[in-house]
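User: Okay, second chain of the day. Same drill as before: sequence in, structure tokens out.
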Amino acid sequence: MSIKIEKKITAYEVAKPEDEVKKDSNVTAIAPLLERDEVLVGSTYKIKTPHSEHAMYITINDVIVNQGEESEHRRPFEIFINTKNMEHFMWIVTLTRVISAIFRKGGDITFLVEELKAVFDPRGGYYKKGGKYMPSIVAEIGEVIQKHLVSIGMMEGQLQTEELIAKRKEAEEKLGADAAAKGQQCDKCGAMAVVRLDNCNCCLECGDSKCG
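Assistant: Same drill. Structure tokens below.
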């Protein structure tokens, strides 16, 4: 677009792109999307629920950020979910595309774990191998992402500590095998797994306790 100057030019100044951004207070800086390398390192996790005869395989591929520098680290770039159960095809495709898009935007992605693990199946949850209660398949996908983030150092904590296993066993002995299914929501991890043990609220998912 050209502008005709009607007055005599007495001075000029070169405007920088960042100066234009500062003028508009409504503009928010957005981090650039992560770029995909030719070869990605990933991990595949298996989910087998009693609701389906077919297993679900979840693959999470990572990119290496700041490779060769002191701040080098891995972070998720994309997720794929594969299963022979076509009943879930539509929502699986939707979920993988949305999660992958969030991964690529960078920044803090740990909120995904809490959001997914808070999803409950109206038909009822199930117990996975080892006796742990899962409120839905989506919640278990959230746990898989949590496990992956812990393994690459993006989240703190261990999913299966001796102390946590002992608390789950104690809860089952006192409250029954479906103790976790009766729990309230945890303020720390968002899971519906807070039960009363020894006059103290304890989360059977992350181990958070109001009594220390």
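The chain has two domains: 41-159, 161-212.

User: Thanks, on to the next one.
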